[in-house]
Amino acid sequence: MLNTALFKDIVREIKNSFGRFMSIFAITLLGCGFFAGIKATMPDMKDTAADYFEQNKLMDLKLVSTIGIRSDEIAALKKLDCVDGVMAGYSKDVFFENDGKNEVLKFMSYNGSLPDDDKNNLNHLVLLEGRLPENSGECVVDTKLRSEAYQIGKTIDITLPSDSEELSDTFRCGSFKIVGVVASPLYIGYERDRTNIGSGTVAGYVYINEADFTADHYSELFLTLKNCDDPPFSDEYLDKVEKLEKTVDQAFSDSVNERFNQLVNESRNKIDSAAASVQSLEEILGYEPEELAKVYEESSAAYLQMEAELAEDSGYLAQGSLANAKSRLDMLGEVLAARQSGDSESISVFEEQLAQSKQEIEAAQQQLDAMETPQVFSYTRYSNSDYGSFDGDSQKIDMISRVFPVFFILVAALVCLTTMTRMIEEQRIQIGTYKALGYSSMKIAAKYLCYGVTASVLGSLIGTAAGLQIFPRIIYNCYKILYNIPEINTPFKPLYAAGCMTVSVICTVFAVVYSCRKELVSQPSELMRPKAPKIGKRVFLEKVGSIWNRLDFLAKVTVRNLMRYKKRFFMTVVGIAGCTALILTGFALKHSISAILDLQFKTVFKYGGIAALDVDKFTSEDGVETVMNTPGVTSAMPGCQLNGEVTIGKEYQSVNVVVPGSGESLSDYVVLRDRQSGKAITLDNSGVVITEKLSRLSGLGVGDNITVDLDETGSFKAEISGVTENYALHYVYITPELYEKLLEKPQFNICYFNFDSKTDSSELSQDLLETGKVRGVSLLKDNGKNFSDSLNSLNAIVWLLIICAGALALVVLYNLANINITERVREIATIKVLGFYDGETSAYIYRENIISAVIGIIIGWAVGIVLHRFVVMTAEVDIVMFDRSVVWWSFLFSALLTMAFTSIINIVLHFKLKGISMVESLKSVE
Amino acid sequence: MSFVSFKDVYKRYHMGEVVISASDGVTFDIEKGEFVVIVGASGAGKTTVLNMLGGMDTCDEGEIIVDGKNIAGFSKKQLVSYRRYDIGFVFQFYNLINNLTAKENVELAAQICKDAVSPEEVLKSVGLEDRMDNFPSQLSGGEQQRVSIARALAKRPKLLLCDEPTGALDYNTGKTVLKLLQDTCREHGVTVVVITHNSAIAPIADRVITIKSSKVSSVRLNDHPKDISEIEW
Question: What is the pTM of this model?
Answer without folding.
Answer: 0.69
